[in-house]
Amino acid sequence: MTRRSLLRAALARPRPVLGTWIKLPATEVVELVALAGFDLVVIDLEHSPIDLETAHRLIGTALNVGVSPVVRVADLHPGLVQRLLDAGAEGVMVPHVDTPDQARAAAAAVRFPPLGTRGVGATSRAGQWGALPLAEYLRFGQEEVVLIAQVESAEGVANTAAIAAVPGVDALLVGAADLAVSQGTTPADPAVRTQIASVVAQGRAAGLPVGTAGGATADAVRAALDDGFDLVLLSNDATLLGTAARAAVETATTVVAGHAPAPERTP
Q: In this structure, what CATH number is given to the domain that contains residue 162?
């Protein structure tokens, strides 16, 4: 009856972990992403219209098709975190973690007592609707669930070592866009690049995997790996669909433009 986290298993492998954001409220999207071979999906409640019920269905689909479901919450609401974990989420990503106190609050929301304040709901999907022994339900929540803290401000960068040292924080993810915009610049700014490198170095020193989000191109992935990231989120479902759709139309348009017109039909 032991339940194992797909995400923990992926993070334990020597190769980088690959994921993508889910922004479309459709379970079929998660099926397609799983078939493509991603290690995890991050169901985005911060920058999408996905609600709690839809997230519940997306999590269930992910578990059924063998891809790890992580949920990014819009902010730290312990009641919401608890319900997402009982829905079966293997991880929670919390944005804008700027201080160790915020990291401790996130860890408290994710973990059961005595490590945190999460309530017990073992008759949920996470407890196999009551079929899983209570001790195993509690063990999974304490040992297998992954808490990812997003560092996306200059304050967060300065506090990275302290955030990474908080018990219950399992990984970091650099929010390069917010980090840059909050300082009135771009992710390509050398000062921002230095801050990102600092987060990676401090995360590694603490023994935590560090992730990033970017495009789904060879150059983007190569750059992420060269920067030392262990977890790479490739684009998102909507952008991947839009890119494939544009490529299909461009291909067809090219063929049509170079194709000789068919002879006119005679009546």
A: 3.20.20.60
